[in-house]
């Protein structure tokens, strides 16, 4: 499954979601471990104020669909972006570690553990 996270050039988590200059799409296995990693210069920071919020969200939605993203990991997303992701049924998971790759794994393993615990109940 593909998971997106905003990243900085040094591999740390970018705190801005909709204004991230760069994002990574991680391929994650069923155990929540990253098996592949690609970064993309999206320039959402520059593009954010070019046009309406709706147009900017559409740009992000297009990216998520083009890359078959099923979940996002971030430290923050605005309410409008949260609504957009919810409408797409793309969960927004918390980025809790400073390094992006480790944060994706932690978020996915935590989400998987929560789901597994629910299934066993």
CATH class: Alpha Beta
CATH superfamily: Dinitrogenase iron-molybdenum cofactor biosynthesis domain
Question: If classified by CATH, what would the architecture be?
Answer: 2-Layer Sandwich
**What is the tally of helical segments?**
4
What's the assembly state of these chains? single chain
Count of β-strands? 5
Query: Structurally, how many domains make up the residues?
Result: 1
SSE arrangement, N to C? EEEHHEHEH
What's the helical proportion of residues?
40-55%
The class by helix and strand makeup works out as: alpha/beta
Query: Under CATH, the topology is which?
Result: Nucleotidyltransferase, domain 5
Largest sheet: 5 strands, mixed
What is the CA–CA distance across the termini? 25 Å
Q: Which band does the percent of strand residues land in? A: 15-25%
Mean pLDDT: 92
What is the topology, as strand order, of the major beta sheet? 3-2-1-4-5
> What overall form do the CA principal axes indicate?
globular
Rg is: 14 Å
pLDDT below 50 for ≥5 consecutive residues: which ranges?
none
């Amino acid at each position: 499954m593909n998971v997106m996270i905003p990243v900085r050039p040094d591999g740390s988590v970018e705190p801005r979601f909709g204004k991230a200059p760069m994002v990574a799409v991680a391929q994650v296995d069923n155990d929540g471990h990253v098996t592949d990693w690609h970064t993309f210069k999206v320039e959402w920071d520059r593009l954010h104020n070019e046009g309406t919020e709706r147009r900017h969200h559409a740009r992000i939605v297009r990216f998520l669909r083009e890359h078959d993203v099923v979940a996002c990991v971030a430290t923050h997303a605005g309410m409008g972006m949260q609504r957009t992701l919810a409408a797409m049924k793309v969960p927004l998971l918390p980025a809790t570690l400073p390094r992006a790759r480790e944060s994706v794994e932690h978020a996915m393993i935590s989400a998987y553990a929560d789901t597994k615990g629910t299934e066993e109940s």
